[in-house]
Automatic annotation (TrEMBL):
Pfam families: LacI, Peripla_BP_3. The keyword Protein biosynthesis does not apply. The keyword DNA-binding applies. Residues 1-55 form the HTH lacI-type domain. The lineage of its organism: Bacteria, Pseudomonadati, Pseudomonadota, Alphaproteobacteria, Hyphomicrobiales. It is an enzyme of class 5 (isomerase). Keywords: DNA-binding, Isomerase, Transcription, Transcription regulation. One of its GO terms (molecular function) is DNA-binding transcription factor activity. Its EC number is 5.1.1.1. This is LacI family transcriptional regulator. InterPro entries: HTH_LacI, LacI/GalR-like_sensor, Lambda_DNA-bd_dom_sf, Peripla_BP_I. It comes from the Bacteria.
Amino acid sequence: MNLKQLSELLGLSQTTVSRALNGYPEVNEATRERVLQAVKETGYRPNKAAQRLATGKAGSIGLVMPTAPDHYSDVHFGEFLTGLGEEAVRHDFHFVIMPADPNDEVGALRRLAISGNVDALFVAYMRGHDPRLPMLKSLSMPFLVHGRSFGSEPDYPYLDIDNEAAFYDAARLLLQLGHTRFALLNGPGHLDFAIRRKNGLVAALSERGLSLPEDCMSHTSMTDELGQSAMERFLQMPEPPTAILCSSTVLALGAIRAVNQAGLKLGEDISLIAHDDVLPHLKPENFSVPLTTTRSSLRAAGVRIAQRLIGTVKQDGPFPEQELWKTELIVRASTGPVPRQAQNVGGV
């Protein structure tokens, strides 16, 4: 069914039907509901090209995807996109994904913005002093940031979790259990979430007069292989750490493999807390020793960001400019008291 047929069925002009579908305020609510009911019953789908001509809107969210031969794909971003897509489907919005060299993201975002193919932009993997922000703020196009940019003035729309508080609270739990020798398995060191998680851990340690030496930190892409190799290095230290914080359950998967291969028992010889993005195929409660985690759903974040972007484009607001979500600390069996043999050894 096309627009003309739908309008004839309803006894309304094509202009009225089009305006009802696109949220124009001059169409009364009863007419809008009647049109939407007919759309549901007939399965009518608006022609995107015609809709764009009529409204000046593309019905699309744009994002740049860095890609290169040595660039890791990321299961975390896939889960986030699932949430973003889940909400976009509800509003018949599309994604326009522009692949780009990781060194040309600013240029790629600018080209995408002026292409006319998108109504709003989304950016992720925020860095300290992120160079994309000044360009985004110069555009007359809505945008939304997942995360924040450490060291930059927070004068832009974002949704983030309180990464610093998450790892501060996790470290406090381990300190209360008597641990003093800590190590951190973190994401890439230039990314905002990794900076803030490290700061949260360091802040908790400093309250007890402890520090985190450089050789007790690992900043890598978040894969299980890199988690395993970093953990193997920690375990080979003269006084290995007894408390580990991991920025992902994926890193934790490799770290625990190293712990098991060393003949150690998780939750007894060594305690571990991981950040849980609620990945459906890597549930912390299903590990052989259930993981203590800081938890916040990436999928839920994707849904919320889509709600805000699409709502802004459709002028359905108002929406908050900035949101900072608290994580949930869930205690399971991977954390326990400091081992007796480590109790009388000086801390780091």
